[in-house]
């Protein structure tokens, strides 16, 4: 419910701060006093587009702010999804219109888009007038009404869970079918490519080894010559490193008898001597074994060409990537060979899931048809006394072409106000006044079962008699037990039923006109209703009639 409304610098309003009460409130005032301005301000914090012309003073911004009690609306998901601070008790919506023509929107002081403001606002306030019948024509609202009155929340939740699982399996089956189709199309290609890679007998690390061997074979003669030089350096009888080191060791051992400190040197040098002898032996073997082998060179070159050509063909950089590609081809072919089994298994899961969805949808249909019949009967009885004695109203439940997350039913509200007139969709044939009375009765019917937003009725009683207006007011009062109801009215019969009464009025000065909204005291309320009964002149009879009307309604309220 809305708790407070603050408006500044908006059309004819300088400053306005008003507290709203729970239950049934009425707003009255002379034609042109500014009731539409109050509605316009509310519309702005509900996400409607702003107009620069609405600034009272063109050099200052207009600010409209509403404070709402949201404890009953379970809106945490909205706040979490939009990354907004959440207070389960209270929420503040604010709209600013800048002199530049731009506007800004805020939820709990956090800047938001108009779309976000509108999404939240629609869950907090429903402004209903004779010209606003879209909600009644909205198939989602119609279905929600039927489900609410059916009390099928648990069944619907169960259905939605099974529907989600069925859609997941169906999507997986569709993807697998597409994979199978594309896989079959490329099966021959994959087999050919895999056969070529298998025939190459690729081995991990082989390419690196062959590249090193090719380097040796291509420079065998040069290497052999260099090895011979190394042999000379190592083995020459007088100048070879090994010979000189051996001679040095012999001298050290001889000297150690006279100078023991040399023993430690000899030990260190002996280790080097052993390493050098081993190196020399390795060089000798390499020099002896290394031969130019043209056949081996040709084989290595051909083998490497196999690797290089495959890498170039598949645009890969290494043998490791070729091996990975070979394995992926093998895996894809194995998958293709198993598609039939996978498809059959998944199709079985899809069919089972669809069967569960169908069964739950049929249960929903049965429950909804019973609910639709009950609503149709009850609503007809409620609306007929409101000046529509020949009303026919029916909720049609028909099968949809396919299931969706709500089930398998299409809901239509059908209406006829006259005898022998065929039933047609309510939004297409009902007049503004008829829709207002129908919507009023419908919302009253579901108010106890559905967390409806605050509803603002904008002169929905226009064109009805005093007796019918009284009945409409009784319905509004009944609704206010479960929700906040605000009625902007010009009829004293409706105003007298309100628990809280506000008056809109204008004050003209020498330079400007300003709109004000005040909460009336009991005595002020008597005078306001008396004016509505008799006009601007307050007669004693009008005042007595106003008191009688208020007293009668207070007594009726006390009986409820």
What can be said about the biggest beta sheet? Answer: 6 strands, antiparallel
Radius of gyration: 46 Å
Number of helices: 18
- The helix-and-strand class reads alpha/beta
- Strands, count: 15
Mean pLDDT: 86
Separation of the first and last Cα atoms: 22 Å
- Unreliable spans: none
Beta percentage is: 15-25%
Describe the structure.
By secondary structure, the chain is an alpha/beta fold. It has helices at residues 35-45, 76-81, 114-121, 134-137, 139-150, 153-199, 206-218, 220-235, 241-255, 262-289, 294-314, 319-383, 426-429, 432-446, 466-479, 492-495, 522-534, 540-559; strands at residues 2-10, 13-19, 24-28, 62-69, 90-97, 103-107, 110-112, 125-129, 392-404, 407-416, 424-425, 454-458, 485-488, 500-508, 513-519. Helices cover 56% and strands 18% of the residues. The protein has a six-stranded antiparallel sheet, covered by helices on one side. Strands 8-12-13-3-14-15 form a six-stranded mixed sheet. The mean pLDDT is 86.
Write the layout of secondary structure elements.
Layout: E1 2-10, E2 13-19, E3 24-28, H1 35-45, E4 62-69, H2 76-81, E5 90-97, E6 103-107, E7 110-112, H3 114-121, E8 125-129, H4 134-137, H5 139-150, H6 153-199, H7 206-218, H8 220-235, H9 241-255, H10 262-289, H11 294-314, H12 319-383, E9 392-404, E10 407-416, E11 424-425, H13 426-429, H14 432-446, E12 454-458, H15 466-479, E13 485-488, H16 492-495, E14 500-508, E15 513-519, H17 522-534, H18 540-559
Parallel strand pairs: 3-13, 3-14, 8-12, 12-13
Antiparallel strand pairs: 1-2, 1-4, 4-5, 5-6, 6-7, 9-10, 10-11, 14-15
């Amino acid at each position: 419910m809305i708790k407070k409304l603050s408006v500044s610098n908006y059309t004819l309003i300088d400053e306005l701060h008003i507290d709203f009460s729970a239950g049934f409130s009425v707003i009255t005032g002379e034609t042109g006093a500014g009731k539409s301005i109050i509605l316009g301000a509310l519309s702005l914090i509900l996400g409607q587009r702003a107009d620069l012309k609405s600034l009272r003073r063109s050099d200052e911004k207009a600010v409209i702010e509403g404070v709402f009690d949201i404890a009953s609306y379970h809106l945490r998901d909205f706040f979490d999804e939009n990354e907004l601070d959440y207070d389960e008790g209270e929420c503040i919506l604010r709209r600013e219109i800048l002199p530049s023509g731009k506007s800004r929107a805020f939820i709990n002081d956090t800047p938001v888009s108009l779309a976000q403001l509108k999404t939240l606002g629609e869950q907090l306030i429903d402004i209903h007038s004779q010209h606003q019948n879209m909600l009644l024509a909205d198939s989602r609202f119609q279905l929600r009404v039927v489900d609410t009155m059916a009390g099928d929340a648990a069944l619907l939740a169960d259905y939605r869970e099974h529907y989600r699982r069925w859609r997941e399996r169906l999507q997986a089956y569709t993807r697998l079918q597409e994979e199978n189709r594309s896989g079959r199309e490329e099966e021959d290609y994959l087999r050919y490519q895999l056969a070529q890679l298998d025939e190459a007998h690729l081995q991990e690390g082989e390419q690196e080894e062959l590249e090193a061997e090719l380097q040796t074979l291509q420079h065998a003669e040069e290497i052999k010559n260099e090895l011979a030089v190394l042999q000379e350096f190592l083995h020459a009888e007088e100048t070879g490193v090994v010979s000189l080191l051996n001679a040095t060791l012999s001298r050290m051992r001889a000297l150690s008898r006279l100078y023991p400190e040399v023993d430690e040197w000899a030990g260190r040098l002996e280790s080097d001597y052993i390493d050098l002898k081993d190196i020399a032996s390795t060089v000798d073997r390499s020099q002896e074994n290394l031969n130019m082998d043209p056949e081996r060179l040709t084989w290595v070159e051909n083998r490497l060409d196999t690797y290089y050509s495959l890498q170039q063909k598949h645009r890969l950089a290494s043998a490791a990537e070729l091996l990975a590609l070979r394995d992926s081809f093998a895996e894809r072919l194995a998958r293709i060979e198993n598609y039939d089994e996978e498809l059959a298994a998944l199709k079985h899961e899809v069919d089972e899931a669809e069967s569960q969805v169908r069964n739950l949808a049929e249960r929903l249909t049965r429950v909804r048809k019973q609910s639709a019949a009950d609503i149709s009967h009850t609503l007809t009885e409620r609306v007929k006394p409101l000046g529509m004695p020949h009303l026919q109203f029916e909720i049609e439940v028909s099968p949809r072409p396919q299931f969706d997350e709500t089930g398998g039913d299409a809901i239509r509200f059908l209406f006829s106000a006259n005898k022998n007139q065929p039933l047609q969709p309510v939004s297409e044939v009902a007049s503004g006044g008829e829709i207002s009375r129908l919507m009023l009765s419908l919302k009253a019917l579901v108010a106890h079962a559905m967390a409806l937003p605050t509803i603002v009725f904008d002169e929905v009683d226009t064109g009805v008699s005093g007796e019918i207006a009284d009945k409409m007011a009784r319905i509004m009062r009944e609704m206010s037990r479960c929700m906040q109801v605000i009625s902007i009215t010009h009829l004293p019969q409706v105003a007298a039923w309100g628990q809280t009464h506000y008056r809109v009025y204008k004050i003209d000065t020498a330079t400007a006109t300003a709109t004000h909204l005040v909460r009336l005291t009991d005595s002020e309320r008597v005078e306001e209703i008396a004016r509505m009964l008799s006009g601007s002149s307050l007669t004693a009879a009008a005042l007595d009639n106003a008191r009688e009307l208020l007293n009668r309604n207070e007594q009726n309220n006390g009986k409820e």
